[in-house]
Amino acid sequence: MSIAIVTDSTAYLSDEEINKYNINVIPINVIFGSDVYEEGVNLTNKEFYKKMEDSANLPSTSQPATGKLIEMYDKLADEGYSTVISIHLTDTISGFYKQVESISTMTNNIKIIPFNSGLTVRPMADLAIYAAKLVKEKYSEDEIINKLINFRKTIDELFIVDDLNNLVKGGRLSNASAFVGNLLNIKPILTFDAETNKIVAIDKVRSKKRAFKYLENKFKEDLTNANYPIKATVIDGNATEEADKWKEKLEIDFPDVEFYRSYIGPVIGTHLGSGAIALSWTKDFEK
What we know:
The chain has 287 residues and is an alpha/beta fold.
């Protein structure tokens, strides 16, 4: 039995990680008017945020053509893989996961196991990398799925956004009515609901400084209660300098935690808008 790992472009894996862990990535589409781009293929982060700033209308996203997915799975079958574990962004943001579910019932040359990450960006990348490591360690497909489910329970993430316009207009914020209105100088705090996997606003604070403090306090609380080593990642959507400075502060405040950096690319940036910053943390499976 040979198992391949597939994820989508919203994991924002580096080329080095893709090659090191032998992870296959399917790009998701970003649409500006009549122009369709493949995330990570022909649209850079810098180009995307500039286009969004200059555009009178919000961009949209769409899942890849079914034929492209089947083409990738067929290619993996031809390479000798018997099974694919396909890890994708939460089905509350995109129909991609359900698309993979549908394809999995139609293929007979390779077994496809869809896995709903329940989230996206760097936490989903951690799931894909963990799965790839388990494949190298010769775990069975059932063991890998069970370990992914348990690992998923150790993940937490909080997002600070400058405004909710993109999420509200795109219908991706489940409790939008409680947070829209006068948001002048207000920074909403978002997360993925553990039960529904929906993006929810859990609080709102005045000023970015207080928002950072809110996330730091929640992180400190989880760090204190955890009975396993934790790693954390600062993630930004077109706020690189601000996120870099915050990471430096976190490394001083939490010297026993290893912090990483990642980013919010075009597809998720379409929903969160420019300027979003997040902190994600999870069990450090390397320790």
